[in-house]
Fold Transcriptional regulator.
Amino acid sequence: MRKPPLNLKVLESFCAIMRVGTVTEAAKSLHLTQSAVSRQLAQLEDALGMSLFLRDKGRLLPLPEAHELFKEADFTLSGFDRIRHLAEDLQSLSVAKLRIVGTQGFIDGILAGAVTSFMMTFPDVKIFLDSRSAETVIEQVAGRAVDCGFVKSPLTNPLLSIEPMFSCGTVCAVKREHPLARLDVITARDLHDMPLILLGKGRSFTFRGFLQQAFHQAGAYMNIKAETHTVSTSCTLAAGGIGIAPVNELMAQSYRHMGLAFIPFHPVITHEFSFITSAQFPPSRVTQAFLAHCKKYFNQIKKPSQG
């Protein structure tokens, strides 16, 4: 018996289920009926000749094969979006479009200001912002699913054109009422046995390694109270008095309104970020304009740390 062919609608329904976790929520996000999404999932499993989920009391639990398929399907759909957007650009040259991708903390934090000021200068440009893991940012830029992206350095990839954007140090986010907020600098010894809020190992392993080295050399105990994946969450917890959060100096500035002091950490731990585009094709004029704007913007907002 001939298996039903795969199509984009089937993959879109599958990816929506993987993102939101249920058929009901996937149907809402796609503006389809629940039965239509269920049929498309059944069609996909029939075409593949395997089950992708465990059914448990109405819940769908993804199998390992579902996670593998999702990674490729999501990347493929991003490519089709690129084709669709390109077709729209060819039909109307009066409105330029710029697709930008970065990690969640970067997109939600300091990049928003750069995008806002860019759009004030170029009001006809339409911006598409997306947040992904660092690995997916690199894949999407190299595969031209987006126009440009931002990643932490150092980075070497022959498929990418890499432009250093900015570097900055590390600060400790502490409540302004905390005794350490009165210091000019904070060292690992100052943080001995203090409750710490650290970025998780999976997201910032190099930064975590430098911190551990500083504590080891100072003979200080690292009392990890909480681990997070973003600077925003770390600062929120610090503002709530949970602990002290060593974070990226520049990205922390977006959270100064939380009643936090940002005290430089010594020894200096540097964070470097780069602007990346595909090395296989020259960037568009709007991408080049955005690059130039970001260089100027980040140079202007980079200031010495203050409490």
About this structure: The chain has three domains: 8-71, 94-167+272-301, 170-269. Residues 69 and 171 are 40 Å apart (CA to CA). The chain has a mean pLDDT of 88. The first strand starts at residue 53 and ends at 56.
